[in-house]
Amino acid sequence: MYSSIDSFINRKIVVLREHDSALVAARAMCDNQVGCVVVYNKDSELVGVLTDRDITCNLISEELDAYIEIKKIMETDVVTLPDSGTISEAIQIMKSYGIRRVPIINETKRHQKKCVGIVTLDDLIAGQFINSLDLSEIVKSQIRRRKVFEAISSKHNGSHLQTYNRFIGQFTEAFQLSKKQTEEIVMYLLGILVQRLHYTGGTHFISQLPKHIQEPLFDLPAGPNRSITDQTILQGVKLRSGLNKGASEVLIQTFWKTLKSVLGEGETTHVLHQLPTEIRRRLAPEESEYFAYRSHSQPISPPPMEKL
């Protein structure tokens, strides 16, 4: 894959100074409908990139002042690519550094490096210039990178563990099994869903789950795995729970209802839409019947108007 990166450069960039506030950056992103800003110092040198996620994680989770200078919360270890670069080089940078955006640099006659645009992972996906294996490596690299930063804060680690324990605790109460059995069944069923979904859908689904669960799920083969059926799901639960067929069917439906209460109806309905009919019926018989009704019902056309 040696295609030029030129056609994928998003040249709509917002440039701010390092002494501007986080509030100014947030407003600039909203006004221009972008997910990041590039940051220059007083000598017009690129010194950082600030994303919407940086603002969310730093200002909200750490309860910082909105008027804090962006140089204190931006990413300063900026990895760039010259505008003569290729798509494969951009993908390799994303994989190596766990980033979704690569600033593109043009060197002026005065040997100054000027940011002329940004290449994003989303644009490469939309252009079908990235395969599922590379995408998987980028996401894994992102998670590892986040863990390095999160390890600095014991507050974050404790919070993530509490979230995970609450998550598993709700299933333990619903299943009426031991925590160990519950963890095994929940991870099995989550893994089945991730592998049966298309890779992009599976990635989004994983992102909604507690941090302690995400990494082992990202290590699974990219979906969709069409060999997974309602019967393989049932057999897997029977094996792990030691229950008979009827009790295992109830357990699977209990899993789905509990997942729905944890993640919300919108997220689980989105997942259900992406699954084959027989698996929908296995997870949520009532919701599956509703989908079947909606897909077969036709809109009623209004009667023709009479001519005057």
Instruction: Give the class-level CATH name of the largest domain.
Output: Mainly Alpha
Distance between the termini: 65 Å
Structural class of the secondary structure composition? mainly alpha
Query: Largest sheet, if any?
Result: 3 strands, mixed
CATH architecture of the largest domain: Orthogonal Bundle
Give the overall silhouette.
Answer: elongated
What name does the CATH topology of the largest domain carry?
A: Globin-like
Number of helices: 14
Q: How much is the average pLDDT?
A: 82
The portion of residues forming beta strands comes to: 5-15%
State the fourth-level CATH superfamily of the largest domain. Answer: Uncharacterized conserved protein DUF2267
Q: What count of domains describes the coordinates?
A: 2
Output the helix-strand order.
EHEEHEHEEHHHHHHHHHHH
Report helical residue fraction.
55-70%
**Integer-rounded radius of gyration:** 24 Å
Major sheet strand order: 1-2-3
Task: Outline the structure in words.
- By secondary structure, the protein is mostly helical.
- It folds into two domains: 7-133, CBS-domain (Roll); 154-295, Uncharacterized conserved protein DUF2267 (Globin-like, Orthogonal Bundle), CATH 1.10.490.110.
- It has 14 helices and six strands.
- It has helices at residues 22-32, 52-60, 87-97, 121-126, 132-152, 154-175, 179-196, 199-207, 211-218, 230-241, 245-263, 265-273, 277-283, 285-296; strands spanning 15-17, 36-40, 46-51, 81-82, 101-107, 113-120.
- Strands 1-2-3 form a three-stranded mixed beta sheet. A three-stranded mixed beta sheet has the order 4-5-6.
- Helix 1 (22-32) links the parallel strand 1 (15-17) and strand 2.
- Helix 3 packs parallel to helix 5 (132-152) and helix 7 runs antiparallel to helix 8 (199-207).
- The protein is elongated.
- Residues 293-308 have low confidence and may be disordered.
